[in-house]
Amino acid sequence: LSEKLEEAWRKLRGQDRITEGNIDEALRDVRRALLEADVNFQVVKEFIADVRDDALGAEVIKGVTPDQQFIKIVYDQLLKTMGEENVPLAESQVKGRPAVILMAGLQGTGKTTATAKLALYLHKNNKKALLAAADVYRPAAIDQLQTLGAQIQVPVFSEGAAADPVDIARHALDQAIAGRYDVLIVDTAGRLSIDEAMMAELERIKAAIAPDEILLVVDAMTGQEAANLTRAFHERLGITGAILTKLDGDTRGGAALSVRKISGQPIKFVGVGEKVEALQPFYPDRMASRILGMGDVLTLVEKAQEEIDFADAAKMEQQLLSGQFDFEDFIKQMRMVKSMGSLGGLLKLMPGMGKISDDQIRQGEVQLKKAEAMIGSMTKQERRSPDLINVSRKRRIARGSGVSLEDVGKLLNDFNRMRQMMKMMGGGGPFGGGMGGMG
Ligand code: GDP
Ligand code: MG
C-alpha cells in the first residue's frame, strides 16, 4: 500500500504546484490505496473529494514540494475524518447508577472477549465492573464469559441459558446498583449476519436498561462490509462508539475509517490479540499512519510539516525590515511608554491618532498589561526570535500567563504589524525618533 502512495507523491514531485492537471493521477493512487486498506468505496469517494478540495485550495508554500504538501493534506484529512483525539468511555448519565455499556455486533467479532478486556481495563483504572451474560443462544457463551471473568477476577451476572436476555440485563443492572459498581457491561448475542430478531432483541435490551454507551464491536477483517454493518446497527440502535477488534492481523484497518464516517461515532478501543490484556485506546493519528502504510509515511509527514513551518517562517522573515526588532525591544518600548505616563496620553500625541476615545484608551491599557504577562511567559529565545512561536508554544504561553490562546495570537499579530510599521518608519521603534524629544 505504501508503494501506491509513494507513487502518488512521486507524480507530484518536480511539479511546482498542485493543480487540476497533476492532482487527479495522485488522487487515483490514494483511492486505490484506501480501497486496498479495505475502506468502503463510498467512504473513499467522499474522502477523495474532500482531499481534492483541500489540495486545490491550498496555498502554495514556497520551499515545500507539492508532494510533501499533498501527503500532509491526505494525512490531515484522514485525521479529521477519524476524529482528532481519543474519546474516552461515557460516564453514567443517571445519578446513583453505574455507567451502563451495551455490547453489540455480529457473532465472532469479539464481543465477549472485548467485554472482559474492557472490564480489565476499567479495573486497572480503579473502576469496579460487573459483567452480564446476556447471550443465551450459544451454550458456550455464558461459560466463556464466566471463565474470562474468573481469570480477571471480575464478577459475572448470569441467570443461565433459559432466561430472557432482557430480564438478565435488567436484573444485572439492579445488582450493579445494589453492589455499587462503577460500570455494568452487558454482553449480548450476535448472528452471522444482520438479522431482525437480533436487532429487535437489542432494541428491547436498550429500552430496558437505557445504556450510557452502545459499543459496536467490529472485526477489522470485515473489510467493505464494515460500512453496511455500521449503518444497520447505527440506524436501529444509535451506537455511541465502536471497538475495532483483531487489529493484530495483517489488515490495514480501513474499517476504522468506514465506521467513523458512516456513524459519525468514535472508535474508542482496538483489540490487538486474543488475550484479555490486548486492548488499547484508539488513537486516530496512529490509525491514520497505519492506513497510509505505517511509520515511514508518518516520518514523511513530519518532515513535510517541518518544512512547511520553516517556509512560513521564511515568508515572515521577508516581510521584516532588518530583523532587529524582537519582543525584548517590544517590552522595552512598552515599559518606556508606561514610565512616561498613560498610554492614552501618549497615543493622543501620536500623529493621526487624535480621535481616540477614552474607552479605547482603557482597553489599550488592559491589553498592555496582558501583553506584558504574555511576554513574561516567553522564554528568552522566543522573545528574541518570535518566529519560533508555533501553536504548542502559544498554548504554553497562554497557560503561563492566564490568557486565552486567541490573546497570544493577537499579540503576535500586533507585534508583526508593529514590525512592519517600523519598517515603514525606518526608525528604532514606533515611538522612536520623534518621541525622544518629549522626555
Ligand atoms: P463474539 O462472538 O462476538 O462474542 O466473539 P468472541 O469474543 O467469542 O471472539 C471470537 C474469536 O475471536 C475468539 O477466538 C477470540 O479469541 C477472537 N478474538 C477476539 N478479539 C480478538 C483480537 O483482538 N485479536 C485476535 N487475534 N483475536 C480476537
Ligand atoms: Mg460472545
TrEMBL record:
Acetylation keyword on record: no
What Gene Ontology terms describe what this protein does at the molecular function level?
Answer: 7S RNA binding; GTP binding; GTPase activity
Entry keyword Ligase: no
Which Gene Ontology cellular component terms are annotated? signal recognition particle
Reactions performed catalytically? GTP + H2O = GDP + phosphate + H(+)
Q: Which UniProt keywords apply?
A: Cytoplasm, GTP-binding, Hydrolase, Nucleotide-binding, Ribonucleoprotein, RNA-binding, Signal recognition particle
Q: What is its main location?
A: cytoplasm
Q: How does it assemble?
A: Part of the signal recognition particle protein translocation system, which is composed of SRP and FtsY.
**By what name is this protein known?**
Signal recognition particle protein
Q: Which gene encodes it?
A: ffh
